[in-house]
Design goal:
The structure is a single chain. It is built from seven helices and 28 strands. The protein is of the alpha/beta class. It has four domains: 172 residues, 3-Layer(aba) Sandwich (Molybdenum Cofactor Biosythetic Enzyme, Chain A); 56 residues, Molybdopterin biosynthesis moea protein, domain 2 (Alpha-Beta Complex), CATH 3.90.105.10; 88 residues, Molybdopterin biosynthesis moeA protein, domain 3; 73 residues, Beta Barrel (Beta-clip), CATH 2.40.340.10. The strands form eight sheets. Strands 7-4-6-5-9-8 form a six-stranded mixed sheet, with no helix packed on it. Strand 24 and strand 25 form a beta hairpin. Helix 1 crosses helix 6 and helix 3 packs parallel to helix 6. It is elongated, with a radius of gyration of 32 Å. It binds adenosine monophosphate and magnesium ion. Adenosine monophosphate binds next to helix 3.
């Protein structure tokens, strides 16, 4: 028996005709193609997953250089230097960072050196300028230094063949710095998935327009685009499409070219105007599911050509929760991320959390830290149309199917809405 008779493939369902969250999620993940790596410039890689290991081809530092501004010296020359009996040596010249030629250092002769400048021939140590005194031409040293002090040695940072960034890692700003230092300016990454967002419903007007009586502003379109952006994927808007077969077909058709994934809202359930399953079925394949969750029971997954389609219920809270439960993991998978789920914390409920038995509940909660524990408090009315309840939430308290109430003081798992 299928969730909605007449639509798509049959699924394993329980007595109430429900499938589990895991089954629907797995069905979505199974629709996703294996992501194809592309070679990108380093400046375009932030947040993307690296496809191949990058090993250093260089030695870094490439040459011995000064870690401080001071004097390049032979440590043995300063062996007996003290504050009372300083050693005075001749300054043979100066070398700066990026500078080319410099005079050699030899017994009795030192060279003024700046941070990052190559260590002159003959020198083995750099003495910070702050610990010296003296005028042009001669300088007094007031203490001895260990040989090699304040010298950055070649290969201290990187040697050829050393791993720089591991495959599967999300590239951070520091990785970009490291790769740049090593001259690895083009790397193989998994590209940002392009996600087309489609809001369906005759009642919808654009957020910037004034709704006539009976109409409402499209909240899901902007919200889903923002959620998609937040994952690191690229949202494209297909705009608002009325509950009209031809209009929906046209919207899919014209957007197919720039979609790695379609995310639609509205028209997913069993109303007379819920056309999405039929339309996707006509263009490709579709599975409708009544998922044992609240909010977000009516769900759609399918494929048009090679492009996966996820259809979420229209209520903004349902759409938001469904995004967290189904779309975010799908996008992370498309991005090559191994951790498809966001982190969770265990929190203590500050008031009773009520859920309906037989369904997994996702309640919007605010989190507070107190005496080393997280406290979870519902953000207010939990109806699936109450959009303010998500804007105030730090997390979704997840209450198992077989639990209908979490008592105040009991622990609950909270899916964090931050990374
Ligand atoms: P549906 O899934 O089409 O049955 O819609 C369920 C509820 O969500 C209805 O109250 C719709 O008006 C509302 N809704 C659908 N799409 C949107 C949207 N894009 N933004 C805000 N509310 C919506
Ligand atoms: Mg509708």
């Amino acid at each position: 028996m299928s969730g909605f008779v007449g639509h798509g493939r049959a699924e394993v369902v329980d007595a109430a005709g429900l499938v589990t969250v895991e089954e629907h999620l797995q069905g979505i993940l199974d629709l996703l193609p294996a992501p194809d790596p592309i070679e990108l410039r380093l400046s375009d890689c932030l947040g993307l997953v690296l496809a191949d290991f990058v090993n250093s081809r260089v030695t870094l530092p490439a040459f011995a250089n000064a870690a401080m501004d001071g004097y390049a010296v032979i440590a043995d020359d300063l062996a007996g230097a003290t504050v009372d009996e300083p050693v005075t040596l001749t300054v043979a010249g100066e070398v700066v960072a990026g500078g080319g030629w410099s005079p050699d250092v030899s017994p009795g002769r030192v060279v003024r050196i700046m941070t990052g400048a190559p260590l002159p021939e003959g020198a083995d140590t750099v003495v910070p300028v702050e610990t010296t005194s003296g005028a042009q031409g001669a300088v007094a040293f007031h203490r001895a230094y260990e040989r090699g002090a304040n010298v950055r040695r070649p290969g201290e940072d990187l040697t050829p063949g050393q791993p720089l960034v591991a495959a599967g890692r999300r590239i951070t700003p520091a990785d970009i710095g490291l790769l740049a230092a090593a001259g690895a300016t083009r790397v193989s990454c998994l590209p940002q998935p392009r996600v087309v967002v489609l809001s369906s419903g005759d009642e919808l007007v654009r957020a910037e327009d004034e709704p006539h009586p009976g109409r409402i502003r499209d909240a899901n379109g902007p919200m889903l685009a923002a959620l998609i952006k937040q994952t690191g994927a690229l949202p494209f808007s297909a705009g608002i499409v009325p509950d009209d077969r031809k209009a929906l077909m046209y919207a899919f058709d014209t957007n197919l070219g720039h979609a790695d994934l379609f995310v639609c809202t509205g028209g997913a359930s069993a109303g007379t105007r819920d056309l999405l399953p039929d339309v996707i079925d006509a263009l490709g394949e579709v599975t409708t599911a009544k998922v044992a969750m609240k909010p977000g029971m009516p769900q759609i997954r399918g494929r048009i050509g090679e492009t996966p389609v996820i259809g979420l219920p229209g209520n903004p809270v349902s759409a938001f929760v469904s995004f967290e439960v189904f779309v975010r993991p799908a996008l992370r998978r498309l991005q090559g991320r191994r951790d498809v789920n966001r982190p969770t914390v265990t929190a203590v409920a500050t008031e009773p959390l009520r859920a309906s038995a037989g369904k997994r509940a996702y309640l919007r909660v605010r989190l507070a830290r107190e005496e080393g524990r997280w406290l979870a408090t519902p953000t207010g009315p939990q109806g699936s149309h109450v959009i303010s309840s998500i804007a105030r939430a730090d997390g979704l308290a997840v209450i198992a199917e077989d639990v209908d109430e979490v008592a105040a003081g009991d622990e609950v798992r909270v899916h964090l809405l931050v990374d």
